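Aim 2, interim progress: modelling of the C2E-bound target.
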Amino acid sequence: QAKEMGKNTFRFYSESIGESMAERFKMEVALRNDLSASTPSSSPFFVVYQPQYNAKKQVVGAEALVRWSSAELGFISPAKFIPVAEEVGLIDELGMFVVNRVLHDISNMASLFEKSTLDHVSINLSIKQLTNPTLTSRLLNAFQHEGVSPDKVRFEFTESVFLDNALNPKALFSEMSEIGFTFALDDFGTGFSSLSYLKDLPISELKIDKTFVDGIPNEESDTTICSATISMAQKLGLQLVAEGVETEGQFDWLVAHGCNLLQGYLMSQPIEYKEFVSLLEKSHVD
Ligand code: C2E
Ligand code: MG
Ligand code: MG
Ligand code: MG
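Predicted structure of the complex, ligand included:
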């Protein structure tokens, strides 16, 4: 009986691993082809922007999020293909595609930074991009090429950067912040790092993870974590963005507790560049 079960278990696992290996391999091949074979305008990769709002529901920022519409595999979530791109060494190429695309868009909407409440656009950087020693110089080239000033962009990273032995975050972030780049700590509270980096590193912003926002206003543990994070950010002089705001109840609770930067489906899903521009044009401050 036990032997039988063992056999079944083995067969079950080997099949499921085999399937997912094949899937990952297909994804790798498609990623490689789609990254190399196309010009920026015909690329199956593109960037969408999720607006970030202040307490008066004015757009003050946006998070750039990559999308992939593969001819072979269809639409795939970045939560699936980013880890594969990281594993197979394609994240630098994909990451620079995103940076170049966003800088191009920023330079096209330069006047909107003056005419609207928009302050900056955030770009996600994965740990694998941050550990590449050529990152800073490639970023500098890209910003110079598009004529975009570093203060128009904020880079988001996760706590994983503090757990990677190959990276000295203090050295890297100091170097980058001297150039004028600013940083946000994404998915705050979900990692396993110590809080000491908050006083050692040049970080401008914390993003409270959606998993905590989800429990507002009914889950006491979540509201406790959110209000503690808000007051800690205030005392440390950090901006604080709440992620994944989906209900009026969450919005009102967060604003009442001092969180005045918010992002989520309640206000807007991620939208394409043109739609983002018309949103900003409608909200001109004269
Ligand atoms: P993230 O950086 O934490 O981005 C927030 C994610 O939450 C986005 O998912 C966004 O669409 C989603 N979201 C925002 N508001 C709501 C809401 O109210 N409800 C719900 N259910 N979801 C909401 P997305 O675009 O699928 O991206 C997933 C993750 O993939 C990102 O998490 C980020 O870690 C990664 N990613 C996306 N674009 C890039 C990129 O250009 N470079 C890198 N390195 N990673 C990226
Ligand atoms: Mg402005
Ligand atoms: Mg992010
Ligand atoms: Mg996040």
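The first strand starts at residue 45 and ends at 54. Residues 50, 65-66, 77-79, 82, 95, 98, 124-126, 156, 186-187, 243-246, 263-265, 270 surround C2E (ligand 1) (CB under 6 Å).
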